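Re: beginner question about structure tokens

> Can someone show what the tokenized structure looks like for a real chain? I only ever see the sequence side.

Sure, here's an example I had lying around. Input first:
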Amino acid sequence: MATQAGIGRDDAIPLYHQIFLGLRDEILSGRRPFGAAVPTEHELIAHYGVSRITARRALDELAAHALVERRRRVGTRVIFKAPATPIEANIDQAIESLIAFGRDTQVRVISLDEQPADAAVAAQLGLAEGATTVRALRIRYLNQTPLGAVESYVPAHFAGALTRERLTAAPLLEIVRAAGHTIGGGTQTISAIAADPSLAALLETDPRAPIIQIERVVHNRGGTPLLFTIARYRGDRYRLVLDLQGGPHSATGV
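And the corresponding structure tokens:
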């Protein structure tokens, strides 16, 4: 299948709808939050190599689904706000579970390089937009079958601690600890997206297959962000289990 910038040219799904689905996933997952700018028609044309009619139709479909607002001379902005219900968890237990999960799976490092932080990454790491970060992209395997693609960003001062060999041998959280940082807490957001052709190829699944996306920010005890990770797991090979325990004032009904 011929692909360009995350769309399939030979896919049965129309190009405008593929672009719409990709942008919709970014909005619903929070990667493109309320008030954020959406690419213009010209930017979509340049990025995807499509016609103006195709680009316009993708943006019109976003507006029709009440995800964006299009205003002349102002541009297109996200108007969707995702509802969220915070759940508190013990950070030490959560971190140990994540490290154990990392040890029980195998990793192949796809890329490890320095990149300027875009607006979303900068906001998560508390950096200025354009600041240097280190980005690591890994594929995590279970029983020699792809389980998920894990994309992580850390501030530039971690550059010396990250190598392909270390990322293959140990979970990133363990590497952060070994570098002398104490983990104080974190925030995790879970959403569902559909695999675009490039992600589907990495995970050896079908385009539009269901994907569980987990975005995680980990910070030290002083509240300084240490790590921002976007993990995308195959929906047919990954599940989340929460152990819910009631206290003396637990509700008796739902």
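Each token stands for a local structural state, so reading them left to right follows the chain. Residues 248-254 have pLDDT under 50 and may be disordered.
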